[in-house]
Amino acid sequence: MKKWLGIGLMVLGLFGLVFGTVAAYQGVPGPNPDVERAMEPQMVGHGHGAMAEDRGRYMGLGVRATDLIEVSIDPAEVQDYLSQLSVEEFTNPRGVTIQKLVYDGDYVGKVVGDYDLSELDVYAAYETLNGVKVFLTYEGNIVGFVLMK
Question: Where are the domains of the chain?
Answer without folding.
Answer: 2-148
